[in-house]
Every structure is written in C-alpha cells, then in structure tokens.
Amino acid sequence: MCGIVGYVGPKQAVQVLVDGLARLEYRGYDSAGVAIIGPHGLKVVRRPGKLSALSAALTKEPLEGKIGIGHTRWATHGRPSEENAHPHTAGSVTVVHNGIIENHVALRLQMEALGRRFSSETDTEVFSHLIDEAIVDGAPSLSAAVRAAVNQVEGTYAIVVLSEKFPDTIVATRNASPLVLGKGVGESFVASDVPAILEHTRNIVFLEEGDVAELHAGEFSITDRAGKAIERPVESITWSAAQAEKDGFPHFMLKEIFEQPRAVADTMRGRLLPEHGDAVLDGVELPLNGLGRIVLLACGTSYYAALIGKFLIEGLARIPCEVDLASEFRYRDPVIGPGDLVVAISQSGETADTLGAVREARARGAWILAIANVVGSAIPRVSDATFYTHAGPEIGVASTKCFTAQLTALALLALHLGRRRGLSEADGLKFAAAMASIPEKMTRCLQALAPDPKTEPPFPALAARFKNARDFLFLGRGANYPIALEGALKLKEISYIHAEGYAAGEMKHGPIALIDDGVPVVVVAPRGPGYEKVLSNLAEVQARNGTVLAVATEGDETIARQAKTLLHVPEIDPRLQPFVTVIPLQLLAYAIAVARGNDVDQPRNLAKSVTVE
Ligand code: M6R
Questions:
Q1: For the residues 164-177, what does the mean pLDDT come to?
Q2: What's the burial of 451, exposed, middle or buried (CB within 10 Å: 0-12/13-18/19+)?
Q3: Is 508 an active-site residue?
Q4: Cα(606) to centroid of ligand 1, in Å?
Q5: Given the DSSP bridges, would you call strands 170-175 and 180-183 parallel, antiparallel or unpaired?
Q6: Which of 256, 260, 343, 351 to probe ligand 1 with, by most ligand atoms within 8 A of CB?
Q7: Which residue's CA is the nearest one to ligand 1's atom 7?
Q8: What is the pLDDT at residue 605?
Q9: What pTM was estimated for this model as a whole?
Q10: Looking at the DSSP assignment, which residues form a beta bridge with residue 474?
Q11: Tens of pLDDT, residues 545-554
C-alpha cells in the first residue's frame, strides 16, 4: 500500500522523508519519490523500484531544503515506472496521494480541455492540475486551493501538497484513506501511518474525514472542507515501532482480516454501478462474440475463489464455466482454444503454476483475463487484459483480504457478463444493491465476532478447547463448499492441524467414518439454498458424537436448537454469502494458531509467492 511522509522544520527534509519512507517499506511498494522546496525552488526526484534506487539518485542529485513530501507507491492506475511514481507535479504544485479517484477520467478530460498536459497514467495527477488551476485562478492560500480541488473529486484519498507559491506550507487532507500529523519542537510532520514519524515524535493527531490540515514549522491548524476551524486532540502514542507497523494488531494476518471491508470496497469502487445494476471492468473489452465457455485457472486460496466465481458467473450470465487447478491444467493436454475465455486468478501475479497454465492456454488460442493484486506482475504481463483487485499488499502468508477482493472482482465480472447476456435490469439492480452492502455486513460480522481484536485474540475459549485437536472437518454446500475448503486450508497453513474440507453431501460417502468426539466438525450453514440439507448433515455428525461448530445466520433459532457452538454471520443475498461465511473461519484458524504459539504471519514451509513449480 502507498506510504506518505511530509516534513517542515529546521532539518534538511530529504533525510527525514527517506527515513520515514523506509519505515513504511514493510507495506510493500514498487516506486518511490520525494519533492523538496529549497533555495533552487521545487525539485522532484522519483525512481521505480526500491528506496535504495531513490537514495542512489539523491546521492547523485542531492536536494537541499527544509520542507518536503515523499511517497512510496503501490501501483493501481498505471504500471510501476518513474513517470507514474509520486509526487506528481503540475505548474507550481506537487502532490502525493494514497487512494483511488473514481472520476479521474472525467476530470482529466476537463483539465485537458483547458490546455493542460498530463505526463502520467495515474489518477493522482488530476489532483495536481486541479490544485494548480485553483491557484492560477487566485486561491488565497494553498488550503483554499486544495479545498476547491477536493470538492470536484469522487473517491478515496489522503493527499499531501506542496506549492512553490506557498513555500513554507504543507497542506494535507483525507477522505477514507488515513493521515496523521506529528507535532515536534519547531517542526511538523504528516504521514499515512504512525511508524513513519515515530522516531521524531510521539505526539500524534489522527485526522478525520474531510479535515484539511495546514502545516508550518512547529505548528499546524485544521479546518473542515468549508474552512471552519476544528480542534483535534493530540494523542501520545505508547506503541512500539513494531506494533505501529501493524496498526496496533498483534499480527499482519489479523490486521488484514479486519481490512477486508476496505479491500472489498476499494475493489468495487468506480466499477460497481448500483444505479444501473451493472459493472464496468476498467475498460477491458472481453471477447464476447462467439464466447462459448469460461475456464477459471488458479492455485490454493485463489482456486477456491475461482470455485465461487463459477457459481456467480453461471448464475448471472448462464455461460458454462470450468474451474481448473493451474498446476494440473498445464500438464494434461487441455482442450482449450479460440472461443474460450480464460480467467487466471492470482494474488501475487507471480505463481509459477498459474503463469505456466496461462502461457499454455494462450499458446492454444484462448483469450486471457488476469485477476491479480500486484500491478505489473508476471501473469498480467502475459495476459490479454487484467482486472486488478485493490486489496493493497498482503503481508501475512495466509491469504485473507486478497481472497475476498478476488471474490469481489469475480462478482463484478459475473454482473458485467450477465448484463450482456440477458440478465434483466431489475435482477442486475438487485444484485448490485446486494454487492454494495457487502463492506458494511463484513464490518458488522468482524465487530460481532472479535470486538476488541487489538487487545484480545478472537475466540479464546474455542482456541483453548481445540488447539490440540488432531483433525478438523469443514463441511459446506453450494458456494459455501469452497468456503469449507478455504477454512480447512487456512487452519492447515497456520495451525499445522490436519483439516479437510468436504461438500456436506459427500460426508456420508466416506469421511463420516472419521467422526468421533475427537474430531471437531465446522459446518457452514447459513440460511439459504441447501440449508435444510446441511442441517441434516449436522445432525448426522451429532448422532456420532461429533463436536459441531456451526457458522449460522444471526437470529437463526432453528440451528440454535441443534448446535451449541454458533459463529454468527449477518444475513446477506445467498449468492454473496461467502463474503461473510469465510470471516469466522479465518478468525478461527488465526485463534487456534495463536493459541498453539505458531508464527502466524510466516508459517513454516510456506512462501507468499510460489514461483517454483
Ligand atoms: O499468489 P496466488 O494467489 O497465485 O497464490 C496461490 C496460492 O499459492 C496461495 O493462495 C496459497 O494457497 C496461500 N498461502 C493461501 O493462504
């Protein structure tokens, strides 16, 4: 995820900025840059790649000045490159930005009509032009210019701005993306995250939505978007640097589980059109003429997302869908060719098996759409088009927020295909409205299951009870069958307990022999299609003294009479149940792994990107 640091004070700014950015490196990024105002005016240095490349450039071309801003970029719009790296400059203004601007295309056209030229592919550059335009139009202060600009922008942002016209001022504002101010002695800081400035000050102000902060050396003031003064408390931070990196969560995995509502919302942003009951795919033109079938290829957790994608695509678009493990597909002389649309799903975009499968499918004439989280990674590079998830970098090896972001991308794809294949407007509107409700439902689910995640691990009693179990069984039906598979994979990966996911109806065909009082069985049983049948499977487990943990819909009295241990999820359109039913399973795996004392973020034998076959 992108990182921001800004400084104004008595020190040379460049070192403060580079050190601050280095403290945000753990978040992942693909380019970096700084802008300084000094005796020679505004200077900007940007480099693709790691901070070491930026530092080397700054050694060759030192920047002098006591006010500046810096950024590490995680690409969303436009590949990682020097032109797309921040800060972005227009006229006297330079800007760093975290977030996604939804109406950037319209704003760019508006600015171009005024004769302005753009030099990057980013959404961010519109901010620089809008702010510079406001200054050219006579804005009395940098804050006034920033206010005029943000009033035209839709989307999420944390921006920090410098202008040669106001050379002792930094302005920062936010909408949905976080920003903090730091108060030092004779110096002021701004950053996207506390760790970037913790070395200099522990006196922090957390900006709220719509706050506009103006920073000078040693003082800052905050106003709202209308320019009215606001007071925000200065908080003294007691976290260690390591805790601050995880935003106070004990592990990245837990932090990422809690980031899911944001990751899903960001992946939908500007793409879901609830008022039209439709979805757009960032301008990707799918080969719909003569499209006979879709083949979804992926590995691991991404494969389970693909299994759910099949339900969504077949359900909404009525196009036959096959799902294949990428690691198997490429070695079995697959029947694939022109007329087939292959959707390759990969969080890292680097998985060797998926990459190999894509090359194989492409060589045989299929058209490839990648769904990936890392811009410019290998799989997008060999695909015909890419639809990126906007989950931000995932640091925990066990995939959580990337999984639900993949489900979001697949649901958008299904809706888009559906509307082009006869799904009525009324049905599109209904599905889109249900999709729009997902982030709020996920938030509610997380808060109910783990109310105080930073200080108290979730499910302490369950974790203590089951941490020594030898085997676990996970059961589900329909789109909750892949959730059972994913629940079992999560538990295996981080707790090292053997776990199997099964389609609930398959239990009687074999795995029922395993059931006794020593095998906990997690039954994914939200109300909806197949519910009664899953209840029968649950009863079959209980009849054999099996211990049942049921994932159930809030307020479901029927299941409450049958199962003692219930993990509740909110009611949601049944087609979208996996977005909430996966949450208790992620938390359960996490809780058990923590209770066993395992390294949750770096489980043994696993790598975040599997670049070997
Ligand atoms: O980067 P990818 O999505 O292609 O990775 C695929 C699998 O290696 C990955 O999902 C793996 O199963 C994770 N460790 C799951 O938590």
A1: 94
A2: exposed
A3: no
A4: 10
A5: unpaired
A6: 351
A7: 300
A8: 84
A9: 0.82
A10: 501, 522
A11: 889 999 999 9
Condensed to tens digits (0 to 9), the pLDDT of residues 449-476 reads 999 999 999 999 999 999 999 999 999 9
Distance 334 CA to ligand 1 centre (A): 23
Strands 278-279 and 272-273, sheet pairing: antiparallel
Active site residue 608: yes
Give CA–CA dist 545/520, Å, rounded.
10
| Pocket perturbation via mutation, ligand 1, pick of 251, 328, 347 by most ligand atoms within 8 A of CB | 347
Cα–Cα distances in Å, from 348 out to 253, 392, 437, 463?
16, 11, 27, 30
- If you ran DSSP here, which 8-state letter would residue 101 be given? B
Distance 607 CA to ligand 1 centre (A): 9
* 98 touches ligand 1 (CB under 6 Å): no
DSSP-assigned beta bridge partners for residue 278:
273
Q: Which of 235, 178, 179, 189 has the alpha carbon at shortest distance from 216?
A: 189
CA of 357 to the centre of ligand 1 (A): 15
Of 2, 299, 402, 445, catalytic: 2
> Quick one: average pLDDT of 69-97?
93
CB under 8 A, 24+ apart: contacts of 305-308: 305/345, 305/403, 305/406, 305/407, 305/410, 305/482, 306/343, 306/345, 306/410, 307/481, 307/482, 307/485, 308/407, 308/410, 308/479, 308/482, 308/483, 308/578
Residues 6+ apart with CB under 8 A from 479: 308, 311, 312, 574, 575, 577, 578
DSSP state of 2: -
